[in-house]
Specification:
By secondary structure, the chain is mainly α. The chain has one domain. The protein has five helices and two strands, in the order H-E-E-H-H-H-H. A two-stranded antiparallel ribbon has the order 1-2.
């Protein structure tokens, strides 16, 4: 039951992030998709939204990352037109410094800019 709820939350967040909004730039009446730009901290980590700060300067352990990667890929496998491995690699590489593994679900909601950025990167 919990897995279904988490799956539904995850899919709804991804669908919301997938919706593109037209930019103010138009070429011959067509709209262009705006490329998302991330901000970076002096230490090279991407800047988190919502004032979230670094909780682990070294990130997760290999075991934690492997588990989260498998879980992310299993949650993402039903969405078409995206490479789930590429999305998960992109997103998890960022959140591992800001969230303990137990709070990964919250990160998908909190870090919408990273979510959208990684979706753009994973689009087929």
């Amino acid at each position: 039951m919990n897995r279904i709820i988490v799956s539904l939350i995850f899919v709804s967040i991804l669908v919301t992030a997938c919706q593109t909004q037209p930019s103010n730039n138009s070429v011959n009446g067509d709209t262009e998709t705006e490329q998302i730009q991330l901000e970076y901290l002096p230490n090279g980590l991407p800047k988190a939204g919502k004032g979230i700060t670094v909780v682990s300067k070294d990130g997760w352990t290999k075991d934690q990352m492997d588990f989260q990667q498998r879980y992310c890929e299993s949650m993402f496998e039903k969405l078409e037109n995206y490479d789930q491995i590429k999305f998960c690699n992109c997103f998890l590489a960022k959140i591992q410094y800001y969230y303990e593994p137990i709070y990964v679900r919250e990160s998908y909601e909190d870090q919408k800019k990273w979510n959208s950025y990684c979706l753009q990167e994973a689009a087929l």
